[in-house]
């Protein structure tokens, strides 16, 4: 099977699974919605971490910004946000169905835009760091933003903020949010895949391989790095907006900016599946989510030990990930060719 046909088959299988699962197993709709969220996180993280070589530990920042931006829009269209989030007095605001849907879709778009703008503003400063300094810097950024939001009383501070109640029948909301996250996951993969096949993709790969040489060849590295960070920010912001509504209640540390969970999970998923590959992050997200659900169900109390062990084994002994290992073993299946002449030359030189 050609690589193109293989890609189409995988897309077809994912879309079929996305359509059939809520029909065949409606009780697992929420868990599957989280699966698509994790696919989106892994795919978008890999654009900078795998394809460009900048390992961010702070992409969860965009997720939280999108969540809060959406909340402000959805509530602000109907009521004063500061009064709505006030800790004094029980305030109940009834959103009509039209108000809810208008606010939801405007909020999702606004969440993506605000996260993108934030990435554009801080990108030139953060992306001036390299290696572990960039990773630690982005982690510090996520923690700092979460703490700032915790003290921002306009959006509820550490007390959090309740999202508008879904107007449909019980159970309908989880299906709607499932569809939105499923669509965003597929769209994010299509966009990232299309971008990587352009000159832009070649440029960020050059930055990953040797940034100094790329800059010497005339590539405006800072511009490419910032744009490569803005694309994941856009999708993470929209995903945060959807997930905030799906949760029904958001607060800074555990829901909007969960650095210790989703912030680490997205990195682990990309590494597990195969960092720097097209389908590796998707595979890693699916496997990681299955393992997470099983350990949370059957190894309660030991789930973090199990997940930690998987991450350590992956990083220490299996750095290329599942798909990276498969590409090394069966290169033709992935459209990779080996120059036999160069191979023989290398073998001869090694023998000498």
Automatic annotation (TrEMBL):
GO MF assignments: branched-chain amino acid transmembrane transporter activity
Topology with respect to the bilayer: Multi-pass membrane protein
GO cellular component annotations of the record: plasma membrane
Residues annotated as transmembrane: 12-45, 57-79, 99-121, 133-155, 175-196, 226-250, 262-287, 299-318
Subcellular location, record wording: Cell membrane
UniProtKB keywords: Cell membrane, Membrane, Transmembrane, Transmembrane helix
A Pfam entry, by short name: BPD_transp_2
UniProt protein name: Branched-chain amino acid ABC transporter permease
UniProt feature coiled coil, ranges: none
InterPro entries: ABC_transp_permease, LivM-like
């Amino acid at each position: 099977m050609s690589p193109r046909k293989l890609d189409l088959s995988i897309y077809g299988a994912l879309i079929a699974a996305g359509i059939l699962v809520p029909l065949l197993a409606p009780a697992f709709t929420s868990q599957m919605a989280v699966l698509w969220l994790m696919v989106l996180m892994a795919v978008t993280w890999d654009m900078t971490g795998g394809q460009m070589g900048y390992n961010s530990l702070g992409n969860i920042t965009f997720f939280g910004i999108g969540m809060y931006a959406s909340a402000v829009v959805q509530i602000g269209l109907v009521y004063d946000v500061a009064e709505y989030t006030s800790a004094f007095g029980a305030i109940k605001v009834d959103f009509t169905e039209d108000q809810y849907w208008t606010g939801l879709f405007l909020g999702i778009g606004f969440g993506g835009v605000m996260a993108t703008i934030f990435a554009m503003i801080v990108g030139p400063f953060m992306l001036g760091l390299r290696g572990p300094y960039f990773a630690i810097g982005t982690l510090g950024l996520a923690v700092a933003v979460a703490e700032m939001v915790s003290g921002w009383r306009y959006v509820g501070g550490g007390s959090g903020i309740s999202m508008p109640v879904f107007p449909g029948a019980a159970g309908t909301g989880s299906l709607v949010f499932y569809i939105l996250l499923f669509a965003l996951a597929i769209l994010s993969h299509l966009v990232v895949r299309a971008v990587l096949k352009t000159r832009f993709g070649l440029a960020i790969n050059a930055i990953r391989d040797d940034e100094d040489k790329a800059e010497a060849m005339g590539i405006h590295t800072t511009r490419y790095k910032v744009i490569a960070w803005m694309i994941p920010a856009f999708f993470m912001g929209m995903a945060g907006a959807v997930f905030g509504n799906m949760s029904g209640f958001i607060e800074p540390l555990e829901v909007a900016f969960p650095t210790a969970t989703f912030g680490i999970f997205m990195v682990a998923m990309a590494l597990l599946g195969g960092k720097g590959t097209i389908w590796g992050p998707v595979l890693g997200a699916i496997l990681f989510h299955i393992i997470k659900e099983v350990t949370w169900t059957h190894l309660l109390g030991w789930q973090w030990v199990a997940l930690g062990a998987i991450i350590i084994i992956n990083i220490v002994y299996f750095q290329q990930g599942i798909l990276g290992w498969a590409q090394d073993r069966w290169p033709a299946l992935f459209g990779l060719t080996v120059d036999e002449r160069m191979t023989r030359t290398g073998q001869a030189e090694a023998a000498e």
